[in-house]
Amino acid sequence: MTFTGRYLAGLVKMVAGCLCAVLMGCSEKEASFDMQPYENQPLIRPVSPLISEASGIADSKANPGFLWVQEDSGNAAVLYLVGHDGQVAKTIPFKGITNRDWEDLVLSGNDLYLADIGDNAEAYKTYTIYKFPEPKADTDTIRTIEKITFQYSDGAHDAEAFLVDPESKDIYLLTKRDFPARIYKIAYPYSTTSVNTAVKAGALAYGGVVSAALSADGKGIIVKTYMDLFYYPRTANEPLEQALAKSHTKLPYVMEPQGEAVTFLRNNKGYFTLSEKFLSSKVDLYLYKKK
Questions:
Q1: What is the pTM of this model?
Q2: Contact 38, 265 (CB under 8 A)
Q3: Which of 94, 142, 174, 248 has the most Cβ atoms closer than 10 angstroms to its Cβ?
Q4: Predicted local confidence at residue 28, as pLDDT
């Protein structure tokens, strides 16, 4: 895609996200329980060298103090290892896969799941989630990759967020352009040789979802739009669709140029957000710590 094309596409995405946020602000029902005790203002660290179109992040388990970051369509099939200080430590390429429109990243157990689920025109028949063991920092190329190909039960959807249930291993997709956002489920065990079917399992109270994260202890979920972070509590072994059907509350969030990525710290002492560059001259990593 040309620079002009990316600029216009980014502008359309931002406007759509803002419109969805305005609409959901009129209709959402927030929980009555107390706000999670996070700082209102984040610690800000410049990302260097620049990562222009980050769309998914995950706090590393194998490499403490680092995040995994991936970019979306039009970019190379690589994974970035980025320190909590914002410094890019390494770029690791994938062997045998391409970046059609990578949109989110999840670390569950010892595996990373990378979701090629973006579809702005809602024109694709199938989508893919790549699963692979979390790399160590000295990995030169990611080679061992499982492909979980799927289709939606009711036609094409654009999605930029997903979750993996650590107990059941079920995969949940949260659509972006539907209002309200729909929740689809790929039930485990899923095939890595044939096309799986994602079946509708619920809906949220808003649209414009661009990322999601489950805490390492499994007790909390964050769903991100361009303008808000919505927090859902989860009890032990509760199916994710049931947790997402609960009332939510908003977490502190300073709006970014085009924020499309969120993840919890693995020690559950905060959460990170990361934006695409969009119209800004730089990219910052935001950390919201618990008080």
A1: 0.89
A2: no
A3: 174
A4: 42
